[in-house]
Structures are given as C-alpha cells and as structure tokens.
Design goal:
Length: 306
C-alpha cells in the first residue's frame, strides 16, 4: 500500500562549525525556530493528543487525514468532537504488549507513523513502541546516509535499518538485545529488504574495532520518555557505558562519516566540543507533522556544507 505524503517532514538545518584551530569551542548554541511546538513523538513523542488517542483510524483513513490535500480541509472543532466519540471497533485486536500495558496504547494509535506497512505484520516489543524512529524521519535519514555500506549500531526493531536497506547496498544492523534483532529481521522481511541486511547480536562498543563501513548511524537509548525532564540533555545521559561520547568515539574509529540521532534538547555545545578544534558538525532538526521530534548530528562528509 502506498501512502503518499503521509506525514509532513520539515528540516531546519543549523550548521555549526568550530572555527577555532587551537581552542575547543565552548558556549551554548541555540537551535533555530524557538517558536516550534516542542511536543515529543514516542520516546520521540510522548504527548499524543486526546483526539489521536481516542479515534481509531485505518491505514487508509490515516493517510487521507494527513495527506497534503486533505490537510487543508482539516475537520472543524465540531467535526473533531464527533470523531472523538468514535470508538475502537470490537473487531480490532491489539498486540499483546499493548493489551498488557494500557500506557502503550497511545503509541499504537501512531502505528502508521512508525511503519506504514504496520498491517502487513510488523512486530514490536514494549521498548520498541516508544523508541522506534518514525518512518518518514527514517526515510529522510536514509537519504542523507546513502552509501555502499552502513552500520546501524543500535538497530532496535529496525525502523532505521529498513530504510537504510532502500538507500544503501548493504546494512550491518547491530543490537545488544537478541529480541530486538529477531524483531528487526522479521520487520525487514515485511518490507522485503532482509537480504540486504546482516544482523548481529552484540555490544557495538565491543564490536567496533572489528567493523568496517563507509557510514555509521547511531540511535542509542535516550533513557525512555523521561529524557525531556531536563531542559538540556547531556551526552553523558545516553544509555551506553561511557555515555554518548564513548559511543561517538567507537563510531569514528570505524568511519569519520557519522550520523547521530539525538534528543531535541541535546546540549549542542557538547557536540561542538566533541569534534574538537577544526572539526565540524551539522545539527539538523527533525520534524514530524510540525512537531520537533529529534535532532540529527552529522559528522565527516555527511555534513552538508551547501
Ligand atoms: C532507541 S533504540 C533504536 C531504535 C531504532 N533506531 C529503530 O528505529 O527501531 C536503541 C537500541 O539500542 C540498543 N542498545 C543499547 N546498548 C547497545 C549497545 N551497547 N550496542 C548495541 N545496541 C545497543 C537497545 O537494545 C535498543 O534496541
């Protein structure tokens, strides 16, 4: 099923370059567009609207609701109130992990944002429901990372890996959790791209010295929905031993071309400091349906200097 323009995605890029050749850069860098609505999506958006939570939409309805043409004719408030009364049909069976945890239901309502082919048999576990990268964002990142061989260091249930398999010749998908690799492999089959992916169960930090690749993509755990608790998220809070900087160092030991998917409240001055004197980093804001959901930091030749 083709769902055209399912979700509007905007990028506001900010190019941050350390001009200093002798001193590490310091000081805080403000991201553009401060007026933007700062709601999250899953781990990336934890604030689903009441309307989204209470209305059941089929994939087709979802697509129609969000396509560019239809969007101009959004339902009026009165129409919204009417929609609100529409309840989940009894014929709909929720996945077991959603049935067992009422709090996950709001993520299920967003399922076509996560995977447009959700109804073809996509499987997720509890953690993946709130940590998978939404498909339109993953597609965009996959375009930016287009190459022959990419490592997806923390592949989870495969949100990014699947899209990399469409733009890269080969993907090495790693996760420390065997269950995630099982899910990612299954979900890649749903998208018909499993044959382009090598799946590895293991700790990326341990595996890095043995890996070769053109590009490394990092989408580590941010610490669950509570990552927004502080106004500025420190790299040290990334949930891997040694924190976010250790993860970056492991990645650049493989290739200087790194894309790092990070919380929208990341302390960007730490990123500038991390690349050091003369280094550069591009910080891109990733929007989904007008909501800022995350930022991606690009390093090496992934930096778009145009
Ligand atoms: C935010 S999720 C990735 C989601 C993924 N990008 C997607 O769209 O489906 C982070 C993943 O990192 C994995 N992880 C945590 N520490 C790791 C490590 N040291 N090496 C490899 N994977 C790790 C977790 O098991 C989790 O599945």
């Amino acid at each position: 099923m083709n769902i055209p323009n399912l979700i509007l995605l905007f990028q506001v890029k900010q190019f941050i370059q350390d001009q200093s050749s002798t001193q590490p850069a310091s000081g805080s860098v403000e991201l553009e567009n401060p007026q933007v609505e700062m709601d999250d999506f899953s781990e990336k958006d934890d604030e689903t609207t009441e309307e989204e939570e209470e209305n059941f939409l089929s994939a087709e309805e979802w697509s129609a609701n969000l396509s560019g043409a239809e969007r101009k004719e959004r339902p009026t408030k009165r129409r919204k109130r009417k929609l609100r009364r529409k309840k989940l049909p009894s014929s709909v069976t929720l996945p077991v992990e959603i049935q067992e945890n009422e709090k996950l239901k709001k993520y299920w309502y967003q399922r076509y944002r996560l995977f447009s082919k959700f109804d073809k048999g996509i499987r997720l576990d509890e953690e993946s429901w709130y940590s998978v990268t939404p498909e339109e964002v993953s597609k965009h990142l996959a375009e930016r990372c287009r190459c022959d061989l990419i490592v997806d260091a923390c592949c989870g249930a495969g949100g990014n890996t699947i899209q990399f398999a469409f733009t890269c010749e080969k993907v090495i998908a790693i996760d420390i959790d065997p269950k995630k690799i099982e899910l990612a492999r299954h979900n890649a089959k749903v998208y018909g791209v499993a044959n382009r992916i090598e799946f590895i169960v293991g700790d990326f930090l341990q595996l890095a010295p043995k890996l070769q690749a053109e590009v490394v993509f990092l989408s580590p755990p941010w610490g669950g929905p509570s990552y927004m608790a502080s106004p500025s998220y420190p790299l040290a809070s990334i949930q891997v031993p040694g924190g976010g900087e250790a993860l970056y160092k492991a990645a650049v030991s493989i290739s200087p071309h790194v894309a790092y998917f990070l919380p929208k409240n990341i302390n960007t001055s730490e990123l500038v400091h991390m690349v050091g004197p003369g280094g550069s980093v591009e910080v891109e804001q990733n929007f989904l349906d007008k909501k800022l959901v995350a930022v991606t930091a690009y390093f090496g030749e992934l930096v778009d200097s145009a």
